[in-house]
Amino acid sequence: MAVVQEDAVPAAASADATDPTADSSDNEITVEETSFVHTEPQQDGSAPPVVTTDMEVLHDKVKKQVIKEGHGKIPSKFSTCFVHYRAWVQSSLHKFEDTWQEQHPVEIVIGKEKKQMIGLGIGVGNMRSGERALLHVGWELGYGKEGNFSFPNVPPTADLIYEVELIGFDDAKEGKARSDMTVEERIEAADRRKLEGNDYFKEKKFEEAIQQYEMAVAYMGDDFMFQLFGKYRDMALAVKNPCHLNTAACLIKQKRFDEAIAQCSIVLSEDETNMKALFRRGKAKAELGQTEAAREDFLKAKKHSPEDKEIMRELRLLAEQDKAMYQKQKELYKGLFGPRPQPKPKITNPLLVFWQWLVSLISYLAKMFTRKND
């Protein structure tokens, strides 16, 4: 049974954080098969997506079209929502914001939005976790009559279009934003999301699991981690790093190997000897045909666990692939240059040998006779 998932609580992180074949526990997920999930291809985001679903009126100035259905309930007032969105000026289709590109989800507390995000908040407040939708927001609930001439750059009285995904929401803290939480509260909230993600993974709901892990990581952004040191940083990393590794496991299941490599690399930037990060990154690289880079990761992992059967198995597979490739190239080159020319066989027939000797003798005697007459 191959372990493809790592989770650890802060206190027990160091005990099994480097063993990709450790026994499973409540915080560690294992699978026995290699089923894959295919997701819809992402659009490039340069323009709003074309959506043909019905227009739902949420407010006189806010309308919604569903792109992808979500699950569960909608957020209640004061829920802390985590969203990704792209935003365009409706008249010119000028894109002025893209949180997917920035790779940082935005936090919105329903009922406590910034003035220019009231329309967006109304839309998000009528979405379910995992839902993606197109929102049409009138200028009155956007950047208003004045617009905004710094960042983001929005002209006056501009109606807006948002492509929004509600990653998830947390209503456990009544309107309490991340910035108002203590360190312990933020780590606790992140750990709760991580465990929910594990439950989704066990049910093979990989998209939902990724959403929970992404929310967990959102509680521990770069600005937060930068302020931590000592035991608090260790506690935060013991939740944050497994979330990245768990996300990588989901992405590998979905054949999104480049994204999986990026998640593992985040962990390795904090802990360059993390064996599970090396192992999963090697798996993803091998799937992409990056054989040498994959072997390098597996060999680094092997240094920390020389007897690990899974690592040895992956190295054997790479060696077999190399051998098969060598044989294939050998056959290819043989076909290109053709077979080697064979030397002419020597004449062994006695009669032919006698006639050759006789012709040579007559030729020799003729030469000698010619010289004598001269």
Key features?
single chain; about 375 residues; alpha+beta; seven-stranded antiparallel sheet; 9 strands; about 45% helix; disordered N terminus
Structural account:
The protein is 45% helix and 13% strand. The chain contains twelve helices and nine strands. Strands 3, 4, 5, 6, 7, 8 and 9 form a seven-stranded antiparallel β-sheet that branches. Strands 1-2 form a two-stranded antiparallel ribbon. A hairpin with a 5-residue loop joins β5 (80-89) and β6. Mean pLDDT is 82; it is low at 1-26 and 28-42.
Compose a concise summary of this entry.
With 374 residues, the protein is of the alpha+beta class. The chain contains twelve helices and nine strands.
Largest sheet: 7 strands, antiparallel
Task: Provide the structure class.
Answer: alpha+beta
Percentage of residues in strands: 5-15%
- If you average the pLDDT, what whole number results? 82
Query: How many strands?
Result: 9
Order of SSEs? EHEEEEEHEHEEHHHHHHHHH
Low-confidence stretches: 1-26, 28-42
The oligomerization state is single chain
As a percent range, the share of helical residues equals 40-55%
The outline comes out as elongated
Taking all Cα atoms into account, the compactness measure Rg is: 34 Å
Instruction: State the helix count.
Output: 12
Could you give the distance between the termini? 99 Å
